[in-house]
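**User:** I keep going back and forth on a fold encoding question. It is easy to fool oneself when nobody else works the same problem. Could you pick a protein and write out its sequence and tokenised fold? Could you put it straight underneath, so I can go through it closely?

**Assistant:**
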Amino acid sequence: MATYNYDGRDGAYGNKDYGSSDAEKTPYEYQQPHGPSSPITDAGKLSDPNDRQPSLHRGLSARQVSMIAIGGAIGTGLIIGTGTALENAGPASILISYSFVGLIVYVVMAALGEMATWLPAAGGFVPYATRYGKILGGVDPALGFAVGYTYWFKYLITTPNQLTAAALVIQYWCPPERVNPGVFIAIFLVAIIVFNYLGIRFFGELEFWLSSIKVLTIVGLIILMIILAAGGGPNHEATGFRYWHKPGAFAEYIVDGSLGKFLAVWSTMVTAVFAFLGTELIGVTVGEAQNPRRNVPRAIRLTFWRIVIFYICSVFLLGLNVAYNDPLLTGATKKSNSAAASPFVVAIQIAGIKTLPGFLNGCILIFVFSAANSDLYIASRTIHGLALKGQAPGFLATTDKRGVPFYGLGLSALVCCIAFLNVSTSSKLVFGYFVNLVSIFGLLSWITILVSHICFIRARKAQGVPKSELRYQSPFGIWGSGIALFFCCLIALTKNFSVFVHSDTYGNFDYKNFITGYLGIPLYLIMIAGWKLIKHIIDADEQEWLAREAAEKASGKGPNSIYRHTLGYLF
């Protein structure tokens, strides 16, 4: 088998201009051959046997990786967020938008899978942006730096958001007048910190069973929706495609006519993006998965069926059971993150079933707890990966004997305390603006994965690496990633178009939501430019001092040895 030089220090694109140094921490996988028969770190062993302290452990089994990949795609965005999309756009609109975004997600996951099986490195997909971004013409590690921190920021926001959602779900049984929501936020926060600190084996097993419950819940809801649409509910009313005819398949959004229907479809693209966020979790587990070149492709191939079954089937059947102008749906979209806010509960209520909402509320509580648990995991591993590449303080790369980056975990958990902002009514609005940043951070992550994949293919071709050396190849190739990249950028730029529509609160321009909706883009670009500027200044200073030191040695001038061995010990 041919072996190719991709060690980041020499080779066709890994020369010294890349910015690596001999002191830079490089994951073990970076030095391995990467073909189908390449060696793999043994299951349960260190991801880097050459350096025990900063190494993760490969403790995720094949079943855990597959189930975590499935569970990561199922969250409150699907079971609750689809209600607002259905109300604003109609059943056909959400079917189109979820199918379209689902196809983009599959392209993103296939691109990530191709890179992850070639180079199963710690740090999620950030190392690929750092490594291959320079093919664009000078972007180099700055791209990895920018996406790494935006991705970390994303999960620093979503984790407390999920904790808050869990406290709101508890209010279904325990109103805030009896127990302050901050108590439940504290309980759930401590719980996820403990579960993450116990190590990857415990985390993987816990997430396996939580994800199993999520899958069974969604499958149960799909079967229930089929039964209700066929007239199997207590009211024995078969709805079929009734609501697609009256009130209609498409709602009108902002304006009337065909343009209003098109805007309705496009407005639900953002809802669909938010629902699909988290599917890239499989890329973060690569550094701790047993035999990633076998298990990751298996999980990626299942992505297509997950999207079709869990998302497209769910929104299609939901449109058969609930009309977009139903008063119950309108009331549900104004509720909190409890079962009362779910459009599936609206369908159950319409059918006359009285006992399921409480059960579904318990399932939603598991959804949000699992999401908070995995979000904190992603945050800690992302900052750990940045530290490995010298893009965060080095101590954050340190792990304990279980392979847990405890400093990164502690820092991420500390920031998650902003969840307590929701205890105060006046602070909820501020926290709501933070949450508005999540979708743009997620889109920027997908954009970076696609850019990295395009650059990866160009690098592979430049080095003459044949396709037969790939363990997994994206079925869409460079053109598929390019088209998906275009639409991701388009959605990112137009996702908050409604801020330009007149409202009673903000007039003709909703500047607050405009800022929070698009702030991620300039922040991303500033971090790219800032990293390049800082590295350029540091590198220039270092070269100047090295040249001066070499000149002093050549002239026979060296440091004052008398001072160094006397006062130098004191000062």
User: Anything to note?
Assistant: The domain at 62-497+505-543 is CATH 1.20.1740.10 (Amino acid/polyamine transporter I). The chain has a mean pLDDT of 76. The chain has one domain: 62-497+505-543.
